[in-house]
Amino acid sequence: KDTTMNVMPSSYGNILVPLTDGGLQYLLAGARASVGVKSGRYMYEVKVIEDTSTAEDPQVKLKVVSRHMLKLGFSMDTASLLVGEGDQAVCFDSEGTLWIGK
């Protein structure tokens, strides 16, 4: 339900994809599920299905090593869509760093 402006739903089902044309690959993309958890144990699963290049020229894509960051966590409904950027969220990034608050 809540996404940044550069995230679109895919036509292949329950998949969200960031827009990557015309320089949009350099922007951070964020999405938040709308299911609330009140108590008890909970979990969710995320699967990365594509690793895209940040290069705009197709000839350069083979030479450029992209540095992507994936953050997964939990936040309040009033928190930023970029999890880990505010004081109302907690997350882990793809390198194993724990982000709590700012």
Radius of gyration: 15 Å
Low-confidence parts: none
Question: How would you describe the shape?
Answer: globular
Q: Biggest sheet: strands, sense, closure?
A: 3 strands, antiparallel
Q: How would you write the strand order of the largest sheet?
A: 5-6-7
Indicate the structural class: mainly beta
What is the strand content?
Answer: 15-25%
Q: How many strand segments? A: 7
SS field, number of helical segments: 0
Specify the helix fraction band: under 10%
Mean pLDDT, as a whole number? 77
H/E series? EEEEEEE
Distance between the ends: 24 Å
Describe this structure in words.
It is built from no helices and 7 strands. It has 102 residues and is mainly beta. It starts with a strand and ends with a strand. The mean pLDDT is 77.
